Protein backbone atom coordinates (compact mmCIF):
# COMPACT_ATOMS: atom_id res chain seq x y z
CA UNK A 1 0.00 0.00 0.00
CA UNK A 2 1.64 3.26 -1.15
CA UNK A 3 1.10 6.01 1.39
CA UNK A 4 2.44 9.56 1.53
CA UNK A 5 3.12 10.74 5.11
CA UNK A 6 3.54 14.46 5.84
CA UNK A 7 4.51 16.08 9.16
CA UNK A 8 3.29 19.65 9.65
CA UNK A 9 3.90 21.76 12.74
CA UNK A 10 5.35 19.02 14.94
CA UNK A 11 8.44 20.97 15.96
CA UNK A 12 8.57 22.74 19.31
CA UNK A 13 6.43 25.88 19.17
CA UNK A 14 5.29 25.23 15.60
CA UNK A 15 1.48 25.29 15.27
CA UNK A 16 -0.79 24.92 12.24
CA UNK A 17 -3.92 27.03 11.83
CA UNK A 18 -7.00 24.81 11.67
CA UNK A 19 -8.56 26.50 8.65
CA UNK A 20 -5.28 26.25 6.74
CA UNK A 21 -5.08 22.52 7.48
CA UNK A 22 -8.74 22.00 6.56
CA UNK A 23 -8.18 23.67 3.19
CA UNK A 24 -5.14 21.43 2.63
CA UNK A 25 -7.17 18.36 3.56
CA UNK A 26 -9.83 19.21 1.00
CA UNK A 27 -7.28 19.67 -1.78
CA UNK A 28 -5.60 16.36 -0.97
CA UNK A 29 -8.96 14.61 -0.56
CA UNK A 30 -9.99 15.62 -4.08
CA UNK A 31 -6.72 14.28 -5.52
CA UNK A 32 -6.90 10.98 -3.61
CA UNK A 33 -10.55 10.50 -4.60
CA UNK A 34 -9.65 11.19 -8.26
CA UNK A 35 -6.81 8.67 -8.12
CA UNK A 36 -4.20 11.30 -8.99
CA UNK A 37 -2.50 11.07 -5.57
CA UNK A 38 -1.68 8.13 -3.26
CA UNK A 39 -3.39 7.76 0.10
CA UNK A 40 -1.98 10.45 2.38
CA UNK A 41 -1.58 10.72 6.15
CA UNK A 42 -1.10 14.21 7.62
CA UNK A 43 0.42 14.48 11.11
CA UNK A 44 0.25 17.88 12.75
CA UNK A 45 -0.26 20.07 15.79
CA UNK A 46 -2.90 22.80 15.73
CA UNK A 47 -2.99 26.25 17.24
CA UNK A 48 -5.65 26.25 19.99
CA UNK A 49 -9.14 25.84 18.50
CA UNK A 50 -12.51 24.28 19.25
CA UNK A 51 -14.12 22.37 16.38
CA UNK A 52 -17.72 21.18 16.30
CA UNK A 53 -19.02 18.24 14.29
CA UNK A 54 -22.47 18.15 12.77
CA UNK A 55 -24.22 16.72 15.86
CA UNK A 56 -22.97 19.33 18.35
CA UNK A 57 -25.67 20.90 20.54
CA UNK A 58 -25.61 24.54 21.62
CA UNK A 59 -25.40 23.40 25.25
CA UNK A 60 -22.12 21.59 24.51
CA UNK A 61 -20.31 24.65 23.14
CA UNK A 62 -17.83 26.78 25.13
CA UNK A 63 -19.29 28.35 28.24
CA UNK A 64 -17.09 31.45 27.88
CA UNK A 65 -18.01 32.39 24.31
CA UNK A 66 -14.76 31.09 22.79
CA UNK A 67 -15.01 30.90 18.98
CA UNK A 68 -15.78 27.54 17.40
CA UNK A 69 -15.09 26.26 13.88
CA UNK A 70 -18.05 24.23 12.59
CA UNK A 71 -16.80 21.34 10.46
CA UNK A 72 -18.28 18.66 8.20
CA UNK A 73 -17.11 15.61 10.15
CA UNK A 74 -19.01 13.21 12.36
CA UNK A 75 -18.98 13.51 16.12
CA UNK A 76 -19.47 16.53 18.34
CA UNK A 77 -17.25 19.25 19.80
CA UNK A 78 -13.61 18.85 20.77
CA UNK A 79 -10.44 20.86 21.33
CA UNK A 80 -7.20 20.90 19.33
CA UNK A 81 -4.03 22.53 20.56
CA UNK A 82 -0.39 22.25 21.64
CA UNK A 83 0.76 18.87 22.92
CA UNK A 84 -1.88 17.02 20.91
CA UNK A 85 -1.02 14.83 17.92
CA UNK A 86 -3.62 15.25 15.19
CA UNK A 87 -3.60 12.70 12.37
CA UNK A 88 -5.69 13.00 9.22
CA UNK A 89 -5.69 9.76 7.18
CA UNK A 90 -6.96 10.66 3.70
CA UNK A 91 -7.56 7.20 2.35
CA UNK A 92 -9.51 5.68 -0.53
CA UNK A 93 -11.64 2.92 1.02
CA UNK A 94 -12.23 -0.41 -0.70
CA UNK A 95 -15.86 -1.10 -1.60
CA UNK A 96 -16.04 -3.69 1.18
CA UNK A 97 -14.97 -1.26 3.92
CA UNK A 98 -17.46 1.12 5.51
CA UNK A 99 -16.92 4.09 7.80
CA UNK A 100 -17.54 2.11 11.01
CA UNK A 101 -14.91 -0.49 10.08
CA UNK A 102 -12.49 2.32 9.24
CA UNK A 103 -13.07 4.04 12.59
CA UNK A 104 -12.51 0.77 14.46
CA UNK A 105 -9.20 0.30 12.65
CA UNK A 106 -8.10 3.84 13.54
CA UNK A 107 -9.00 3.14 17.16
CA UNK A 108 -7.12 -0.16 17.16
CA UNK A 109 -3.99 1.45 15.69
CA UNK A 110 -3.85 3.87 18.61
CA UNK A 111 -4.61 1.21 21.20
CA UNK A 112 -1.63 -0.82 19.95
CA UNK A 113 0.63 2.24 19.83
CA UNK A 114 -0.32 3.27 23.38
CA UNK A 115 0.33 -0.30 24.56
CA UNK A 116 3.86 0.10 23.19
CA UNK A 117 4.20 3.04 25.60
CA UNK A 118 2.97 0.91 28.51
CA UNK A 119 -0.55 2.39 28.65
CA UNK A 120 -3.56 0.07 28.51
CA UNK A 121 -6.49 1.56 26.62
CA UNK A 122 -9.46 0.31 24.66
CA UNK A 123 -12.87 1.06 23.23
CA UNK A 124 -16.04 1.75 25.21
CA UNK A 125 -19.34 0.32 24.05
CA UNK A 126 -21.45 2.79 22.04
CA UNK A 127 -18.74 5.47 22.29
CA UNK A 128 -16.20 6.37 19.63
CA UNK A 129 -12.58 7.05 20.50
CA UNK A 130 -9.86 5.50 22.64
CA UNK A 131 -10.31 5.33 26.39
CA UNK A 132 -8.50 4.64 29.65
CA UNK A 133 -10.75 2.42 31.76
CA UNK A 134 -12.51 3.42 34.95
CA UNK A 135 -11.37 2.37 38.40
CA UNK A 136 -12.74 2.72 41.91
CA UNK A 137 -11.82 6.40 41.99
CA UNK A 138 -12.38 7.68 38.44
CA UNK A 139 -14.72 7.18 35.53
CA UNK A 140 -13.28 6.24 32.15
CA UNK A 141 -11.26 8.98 30.43
CA UNK A 142 -11.05 9.68 26.72
CA UNK A 143 -7.48 10.00 25.48
CA UNK A 144 -8.25 10.20 21.76
CA UNK A 145 -11.17 11.81 19.96
CA UNK A 146 -12.09 10.58 16.48
CA UNK A 147 -14.26 12.26 13.86
CA UNK A 148 -14.36 11.05 10.26
CA UNK A 149 -16.05 12.14 7.06
CA UNK A 150 -16.28 9.90 3.99
CA UNK A 151 -17.05 11.41 0.59
CA UNK A 152 -16.48 9.76 -2.77
CA UNK A 153 -15.42 6.67 -0.79
CA UNK A 154 -12.43 8.66 0.57
CA UNK A 155 -11.86 9.62 4.20
CA UNK A 156 -10.88 12.94 5.72
CA UNK A 157 -10.56 14.44 9.21
CA UNK A 158 -9.28 11.89 11.71
CA UNK A 159 -7.99 11.61 15.27
CA UNK A 160 -6.65 13.81 18.06
CA UNK A 161 -4.42 12.06 20.62
CA UNK A 162 -3.67 13.96 23.82
CA UNK A 163 0.03 13.59 24.60
CA UNK A 164 0.84 16.54 26.88
CA UNK A 165 -2.23 18.67 26.13
CA UNK A 166 -3.36 21.30 28.65
CA UNK A 167 -6.58 19.54 29.68
CA UNK A 168 -8.10 22.67 31.22
CA UNK A 169 -9.22 23.68 27.71
CA UNK A 170 -11.77 20.86 27.84
CA UNK A 171 -13.41 22.42 30.92
CA UNK A 172 -15.04 25.01 28.64
CA UNK A 173 -17.03 22.45 26.65
CA UNK A 174 -18.84 19.11 26.93
CA UNK A 175 -16.14 17.09 25.13
CA UNK A 176 -17.65 14.97 22.36
CA UNK A 177 -21.05 15.58 23.99
CA UNK A 178 -20.26 13.12 26.83
CA UNK A 179 -21.02 14.45 30.31
CA UNK A 180 -20.35 11.37 32.46
CA UNK A 181 -16.71 10.73 31.52
CA UNK A 182 -13.42 12.58 31.66
CA UNK A 183 -10.57 13.54 29.35
CA UNK A 184 -6.96 12.54 29.87
CA UNK A 185 -3.54 12.55 28.23
CA UNK A 186 -0.54 10.25 27.98
CA UNK A 187 1.36 12.57 30.33
CA UNK A 188 -1.50 12.56 32.83
CA UNK A 189 -1.60 8.75 32.89
CA UNK A 190 2.11 7.88 32.70
CA UNK A 191 3.81 10.99 34.06
CA UNK A 192 5.62 11.38 30.75
CA UNK A 193 4.81 11.60 27.05
CA UNK A 194 6.78 11.12 23.84
CA UNK A 195 7.45 14.04 21.54
CA UNK A 196 4.97 14.68 18.74
CA UNK A 197 7.44 13.40 16.16
CA UNK A 198 8.18 10.23 18.14
CA UNK A 199 4.47 9.58 18.67
CA UNK A 200 3.74 10.08 14.96
CA UNK A 201 6.55 7.69 14.04
CA UNK A 202 5.03 5.08 16.36
CA UNK A 203 1.41 5.57 15.31
CA UNK A 204 1.56 5.90 11.52
CA UNK A 205 2.99 2.39 10.91
CA UNK A 206 0.18 0.99 13.06
CA UNK A 207 -2.39 2.82 10.93
CA UNK A 208 -0.81 1.63 7.69
CA UNK A 209 -0.69 -1.93 9.05
CA UNK A 210 -4.46 -1.90 9.61
CA UNK A 211 -5.07 -0.25 6.23
CA UNK A 212 -4.14 -3.58 4.63
CA UNK A 213 -7.86 -4.28 5.23
CA UNK A 214 -7.14 -7.76 6.56
CA UNK A 215 -9.36 -9.04 9.41
CA UNK A 216 -8.04 -8.04 12.83
CA UNK A 217 -8.74 -8.82 16.47
CA UNK A 218 -9.90 -5.72 18.31
CA UNK A 219 -8.77 -4.90 21.82
CA UNK A 220 -11.27 -5.70 24.59
CA UNK A 221 -13.46 -2.93 25.94
CA UNK A 222 -12.19 -1.08 28.99
CA UNK A 223 -14.15 -0.88 32.23
CA UNK A 224 -16.91 1.69 32.09
CA UNK A 225 -19.02 3.48 34.68
CA UNK A 226 -22.52 3.79 33.27
CA UNK A 227 -24.37 6.86 34.45
CA UNK A 228 -27.20 6.10 36.89
CA UNK A 229 -30.54 6.68 35.12
CA UNK A 230 -32.65 9.54 36.40
CA UNK A 231 -36.01 8.74 38.00
CA UNK A 232 -37.78 9.97 34.84
CA UNK A 233 -35.65 7.68 32.67
CA UNK A 234 -36.37 4.72 34.96
CA UNK A 235 -40.12 5.38 34.81
CA UNK A 236 -39.99 5.76 31.02
CA UNK A 237 -38.07 2.49 30.56
CA UNK A 238 -40.57 0.64 32.78
CA UNK A 239 -43.53 1.57 30.57
TrEMBL record:
Keywords: Acyltransferase, Cytoplasm, Ligase, Transferase. The record marks 142 as: Lowers pKa of active site Cys. It comes from the Bacteria. GO terms for biological process: protein lipoylation. InterPro entries: aa-tRNA-synth_II/BPL/LPL, BPL_LPL_catalytic, Octanoyltransferase, Octanoyltransferase_CS. Residues 35-215 form the BPL/LPL catalytic domain. Its EC number is 2.3.1.181. It is found in: Cytoplasm. Its main location: cytoplasm. One of its GO terms (cellular component) is cytoplasm. One of its GO terms (molecular function) is ligase activity. CDD domains: LipB (cd16444). It catalyses: octanoyl-[ACP] + L-lysyl-[protein] = N(6)-octanoyl-L-lysyl-[protein] + holo-[ACP] + H(+). PROSITE patterns: BPL_LPL_CATALYTIC (PS51733), LIPB (PS01313). It is an enzyme of class 2 (transferase). Substrate binds at residues 73-80, 145-147, 158-160. Pathway: Protein modification; protein lipoylation via endogenous pathway; protein N(6)-(lipoyl)lysine from octanoyl-[acyl-carrier-protein]: step 1/2. The active site is at 176 (acyl-thioester intermediate). Catalyzes the transfer of endogenously produced octanoic acid from octanoyl-acyl-carrier-protein onto the lipoyl domains of lipoate-dependent enzymes. Lipoyl-ACP can also act as a substrate although octanoyl-ACP is likely to be the physiological substrate. Belongs to the LipB family. In the reaction, the free carboxyl group of octanoic acid is attached via an amide linkage to the epsilon-amino group of a specific lysine residue of lipoyl domains of lipoate-dependent enzymes. This is Octanoyltransferase. It comes from Parenemella sanctibonifatiensis.
Amino acid sequence: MAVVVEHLGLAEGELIDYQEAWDLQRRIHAEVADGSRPDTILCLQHAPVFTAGRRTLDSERPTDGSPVVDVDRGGKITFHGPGQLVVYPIVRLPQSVGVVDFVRRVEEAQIRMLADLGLTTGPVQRRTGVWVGSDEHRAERKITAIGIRVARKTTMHGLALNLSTDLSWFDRIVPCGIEDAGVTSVEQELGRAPSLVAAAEMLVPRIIELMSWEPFTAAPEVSHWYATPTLAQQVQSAR
